[in-house]
Amino acid sequence: MDQIITTEIFVNGEARPASDGGVYGIYNPARPDELVGHAAAATKTDVEDAVRAAYAAFPEWSGLSFGDRASIMRNIAKQLTEDQRDVEYRARLFTREHGKIARETLLEITRLGDRFLQAADYGDRMAIDEEIKGPPFDTIVTRQPRGVAALIVPWNWPLSILGAKLPQALVAGNTVVVKPSANSALAPALTLQLIAKMLPPGVVNILTGSASTIGDPLVGHPLVRKVNFTGSVEVGRHVMKVAADNITPVTLELGGNDAALILEDAELNDDVFNKMYWGAFGSSGQICMALKRMYVHESRYDDVVDGFTAACERAVVGDGLIPETTMGPVNNAKQLKVVADMIAEARSKGADVKECGQVPDEALYAGGGHFQKPVLVYDADPSLSIVRDEQFGPALPIMKFSSDDEGIILANDSEFGLCSSVWTEDANRAVNIARKLEAGYTYLNGHGPMAQDGRGPFGGFKLSGIGRNLGYDGVLAFAEPHSISGPAGFLL
To answer: Domains (ranges, CATH) in the chain?
Structure first.
């Protein structure tokens, strides 16, 4: 039987309880009566301590060269996965607190190290000043770290998303305070503590607990010089307002309603439909860049519906710790209701709704867990909420288009603009269409995390956010340009 654990906050190089000793419980979404563990419930006092610790650690950390910090990042990447038993323990814990299947949690934990390596590779590039020779002036443009960065991550892929912020902030020379989501804090807290212990005290500080208690004190702290938030539009708006009081720059990644355009010449076979399935329903559809609206050329609509439905029917829904399971529960009851309400609305308005997948353990499925089999809405009316809004769960509308121009209009008909995909055998056509899509990232013949190049910047248009994570741009987001000029011939 798995042990019930308790995780602590981490401030100034030490793990400790919250200042008032408070904790809260985290339960298994597959078995909501099963307590997985307790996480420390940080207080405003803890926020003050964490920010002050990061501020005090900043001069020494920022004083290191880019190369020295990059070397430390590479060492962290190595040590994150050096103890295989510990990796497997954290992965199992993560599945129990989150619900996603075991192979996804293992992928997420190991990918974090890869992202430290990617960020480290930008150290040499950051160290090179831009030189602008005169006349009339010689100018050097340098990059300086901002200071204390507040990094706020959601519950769906917390470690992977941390990998798009944390190593970038560190290699640029910032110190950080990290707030994981209260819904998924145990394995992230343990993983972050491993990282923090490999760094000087105060460089990485970790606060778990309720956003309603510690969110505003952290985002609005006058010593915080950068906020990087991933989450909902509603909370992102609030973060931006709070940060505005101190003119604190923000990066906001706020989700999406990502469209796929499947053209008439797209290759269609079981491997392709499997790619589409994982693009839409990986982590039970709880991925910001997941395929959330599928538009199919009318000449291939029946082929896609038949093939994709067959792929969805192969889904095995259940406890993520069971090896045969390919889709775990939705993480929490609130998000399950969002998805269920969308499905119910589609049914009530006469849409053709198909529930797919297999349930080996009917008693578990009906026992109160946050389960939902994958649902497809065929030829969905564009007015339905399942089309207009982000589902963030295992439900997908499939619709037709008749020309490239119409497909582009439909794909862009959204308040969001995070990701998109184009499926075709014609590379030039794919790029021409991609250039017209209002999205920060477009995948070709793939969609989602398994199709993404982490060397490219990631972020969105419109309500999908402000700024970029990952790539060289993701590191630059944590640095300020500093121009130094003198008379021509004096500097260069």
So the answer is: 5-254+468-482 (3.40.605.10), 258-453 (3.40.309.10)
Active-site hit among 97, 104, 108, 288: 288
Q: How far apart are CA 391 and CA 329, in angstroms?
A: 15
- Nearest alpha-carbon partner for 484 in 164, 172, 134: 134
pLDDT digits (tens, 9 = 90+) for 12-63: 999 999 999 999 999 999 999 999 999 999 999 999 999 999 999 999 999 9
Pairing type for strands 416-417 and 461-462 reads antiparallel
Residue 202 token pair = 């105060």
Rounded Cα distance between 139 and 70, Å, is 26
Residue with tokens 């010593």: 223
Q: What is the pTM of this model?
A: 0.97
DSSP state of 361: -
312 is catalytic: no
Helix (H, G, I), strand (E, B) or coil at 417: strand
- Active-site annotation holds for 288: yes
Catalytic residue among 97, 104, 108, 253: 253
- Candidates 288, 290, 255, 254; CA nearest to 396 is 290
Between CA 306 and CA 290 the distance in angstroms is 21
Give the CA-trace dihedral at 314, 319, 321, 324, to 10 degrees.
-20
Residue 425: exposed, middle, or buried by beta-carbon count in 10 A (0-12, 13-18, 19+)? exposed
Contacts of 146 (CB under 8 A, 6+ apart): 172, 174, 225, 226, 249, 478, 479, 480
pLDDT tens-digit series, residues 180-195: 999 999 999 999 999 9
